[in-house]
Amino acid sequence: MSRRIENLLSVAKQNGILDDPEVRKLVLAAGLSGNKSVQRSAVKAVLGKSVRHWKYPFDQEATFGEIRVGENFQQSLFCLSQEDLSKHLLAVGQSGSGKTTLFYSLMDEIDRPFWAFDLKQDYRHVEDILVLPWTEFRFNPLKPPENVPPRRWAQVFAEVFGHATALLSGSKNYLMKKIIELYRLYNLFNRNSPPFPSLHELELLVKKDGINFVRKQADYRDTLLNRLESMNLVAGTVFDCSQGYSVEELLQEDVVFEFDGLSRDVQNFLMEILFAYVYEYRLAQNQRGEGLNHVFFLDEGKRIFSVYKERQDASGIPEIDELTAKMREFGEGLVVADQEASKLTDSIKANTYTKVLLPTAGRKQFQAMTEAMNLSERQAEFAQELDTGEAIIQVGSRGPVPVKLTNYQLEKEVTDRKLEKRQRNRWEQLSYEPRKTTQSFDDKIAPGRSEEVPDREIPEDPTEVDLSNEADRLLKDVIENPFKPLTDRYQEFSSSYKGNKAKNKLVDQGVVIERKVKNSENRKLLQLTEKGRDHVEQNTDLDPEHEGRGGIVHRYWQQFIRDAFEEAGWHAFLEKFDADVYVNMGNTELAVEVAMGDNPREIKHVEKHLEKDFIVWIASRNKEIQEGLKQRMQEQGLNPDQVVFRLLREFLNR
After folding, report:
1. Summary mean pLDDT of the chain
2. Which is nearest to 332 in space by CA: 307, 357, 365, 298?
3. Are 320 and 160 a contacting pair, CB within 8 Å?
4. 198 Cα distance to chain centroid
5. Strand pairing class (332-338; 294-298)
6. Cβ(45)–Cβ(27) under 8 Å?
7. pLDDT band at residue 437 using 50, 70 and 90 as cut-offs
8. What's the whole-number mean pLDDT along residues 591-617?
9. 354-357 and 89-92 as β-strands: parallel, antiparallel, unpaired?
10. Are 57 and 375 in contact (CB under 8 A)?
11. Exposed/middle/buried for 619, CB within 10 Å: 0-12, 13-18, 19+?
């Protein structure tokens, strides 16, 4: 007998309806049939008959709003308001569960302009929208948004470019310096007007940089140049302009940006820089408090809101995650969907007011979403039986509601030829300014640029990973033993030289980065990058998942502190009740937060723990961080004396 049928019998027995002839027939049919659809129908019917025996676990109140999403299971309309959507929506479900249909429905219902980032040509079918394949798109990300100072935009650009292409801080700082230099050559600090430099000019400037062969500086230059060359080579037509299409005008239209066919890094960069561009534009125009102005649609949300990128830096969340929290203030709604909730950042799950759970494959993904929605055990059991086009929707603090989503019929296929025929007139109405350079720029960089700069050969795919046998062996050890010191790893090789060579291969390929744990014999650890995770998932049988959150140093201290409490005889857990380390001491519960920096999010965690009457400890890297956190607590109206402050090095004397 299958587990599902056993659960069905258990539900019928618990609710005293096993003697019902119809119930017996349903259970028998489900037991004899191997058809999952028949089994799901039987489960729903039994649950329906059980309603009068136990309290229905979902909210049945009517909903009010302008945006119709579907009907609840009592055939009443379920709607969202414009205000709900301005606070962001997250939908998670497996392929074919109804995410795209939900997007179609929302696009049709909202009466505000929207932009959709399309990576699979899913939305070219929607009527009365402007569809921009990347080959028809013109955008200069180095032109600051209107009224945004060039120096501020240089910092934003460097952060976004670095996040999208996995640059480390040294290379990001080098990039920002080169942008400032480029803006000076174009005299933008005195006159923020055309012509503006493009990514092509930035590449030339970096290429012409006089390197003094200091290894670090040369590494930063080569790393950045690799990214720029690849981006301009793949998508050079997009950036081949001094001024691209007017973002201000596009914000008044429904636009689908088709990025299918571009490399992953270019897709990520374009999506993130457009987010940042719109936010900085709204901020500069002071367009606050105006309700819902505009909506972004993004499928495959983990491409931007990747938990692996969030965990790489324990000192703070990425800039793009910060933007999602700030955008709502300016009426920018965000609708994000993905198949894998566990790979999305904690920030995007926390900063989405409306959550939609569709049929989900895999226990891990299902559990990640039910925990984010705080579903009860019975609600989660119900959600496991959802069919395609059915969802559990939770809006803010309201109770979750099962909803049958509105079906949306579309034209089956729109070929490239048909799309061009429909859109050609609209494309021709869009205007942009070709690239120009100032005289001083020509003198310094590339006189007669197009004639003097030779054509480049097409480089190999920069995302490809090519490892030696020794490097593969070291990578396996990094995954299986994440906290092993680097010196101990070298002992697995015939010599330290070979071990170091394997480590350098992993670092040079962008698979791992090296981190030092201070106050712990200065041990060195190797942390898997997002590129490394992709390589492991696609090419090995290894599991790159890990316990704990943040970067490798943060996770090292989490497990170190947990082990210290367990050695003392207590039950300690990672990430339980949203604490870095949770310790159950019988009648007392302790939450320990590991603070690698003076970050506002630490205070939010502390506040939640105190509300639960936990004893709270903060284990910080140094006293400066302690003092900063104490000051933040006072600013939030919290008494620092409610918290016990410890230094990480104090746990070494266990």
Report:
1. 83
2. 298
3. yes
4. 27
5. parallel
6. no
7. low
8. 87
9. parallel
10. no
11. buried
Q: At 417, phi and psi to the nearest 5?
A: -65, -45
Task: Supply 580's token pair.
Answer: 């870095």
Beta bridge partners of residue 298, listed in sequence order: 117, 336
Beta bridge partners of 524: 516
Quickly list H helices, 208-263.
215-239, 247-250
CB 314 within 8 A of CB 553: yes
**Three-point CA angle 377, 382, 387, nearest 5°:** 145
Half-sphere exposure of 522 (CA within 13 A, CB side): 0
Confidence label for 183 from pLDDT (cuts 50, 70 and 90): very high
242 with 198: CB under 8 angstroms?
yes
- Residue-wise pLDDT tens digits, 303-358: 888 877 655 543 345 567 677 778 888 889 999 999 998 888 888 888 899 999 99
Residue 451: pLDDT band with limits 50, 70, 90: very low
Please give the angle made by the CA atoms of 504, 316 and 533, to the nearest 5 degrees.
40
- CA quadruple 226, 228, 234, 239: dihedral, nearest 10: 180
The neighbour count for residue 134, using CB atoms within 10 Å, is 19
Three-state SS annotation for 523-536 = EEEEEECHHHHHHH
CB 406 within 8 A of CB 98: no
Burial class (CB in 10 A: 0-12, 13-18, 19+), 38: middle
- Using alpha carbons, select from 358, 400, 287 the residue that is nearest to residue 91: 358
- Rounded distance between C-alpha atoms, residue 134 and residue 263, angstroms: 12
pTM above 0.85, yes or no: no
So what's the pLDDT on residue 119?
92
Q: What's the token pair of residue 5? A: 């049928």
Residues 230-272 pLDDT 10s: 899 888 789 999 999 999 899 999 999 999 989 888 999 999 9
Are 419 and 431 in contact by the 8 Å Cβ rule? The answer is no
With beta carbons less than 8 A apart as the criterion, state whether 393 and 400 touch: yes
